[in-house]
Write a structure and sequence with these properties.
mainly alpha
């Protein structure tokens, strides 16, 4: 898209990504009230934005992931699964089957928080493993599941990856410390 629509979508993307990044950081340092506030702001941005459906789907995927991730990190597994179920309902209406890969990453993350490595490895194998965030969580799942060689390969791949993305920046240092 070109012109004003593209500019508006870009502005919305930046605002929402900013809120999602804040939520991820707050969750990392266990400031869950602040994480949830950032997620509410991101949801508000998404619901009021006048942008093409493709962008809305992409933003929605990330938002559902972080809403469920924050719940799971607080050990509210039933809440995280409820968010995953709402997300699944939106996927049923979608015409884009690739979005299911993001949902599988979400389910893997929830299971990883529950510490069921045999299950979450399978979810991550169906997820978008080219997404650095999911690759990192897949490596954690492989490590927890006892397949350390596979986990080490994924950590090394992430540690040497040259990606200009927020989620890569979020996990890069973690991957570097785990690559051995």
């Amino acid at each position: 898209y070109t012109g004003l629509y593209s500019s508006a979508a870009s502005d919305v993307y930046k605002r929402q990504l900013h809120e999602l990044a804040k939520a991820a950081i707050y969750a990392e340092v266990q400031e869950y009230d602040e994480a949830e506030q950032s997620l509410r702001e991101a949801r508000s941005i998404l619901e009021t934005a006048d942008i093409p459906s493709f962008y809305q789907e992409s933003y929605s995927d990330m938002l559902y992931f972080w809403e469920a991730a924050v719940a799971a990190r607080q050990r509210d597994i039933s809440g995280a699964l409820a968010i995953a179920a709402r997300y699944m309902n939106t996927l049923r209406e979608s015409q884009n089957p690739d979005r299911m890969r993001y949902h599988m990453g979400l389910l893997g993350y929830i299971e990883l928080q529950r510490e069921f490595p045999d299950i979450d490895v399978e979810y991550f194998r169906q997820a978008d493993i080219q997404e650095p965030l999911f690759m990192y969580y897949a490596a954690l799942a492989e490590n927890a599941g006892g397949t350390r060689a596979r986990a080490t390969r994924l950590f090394r791949r992430l540690a040497s990856w040259n990606s200009d993305s927020l989620w890569y920046a979020y996990i890069c240092k973690k991957a570097l410390t785990r690559q051995e």
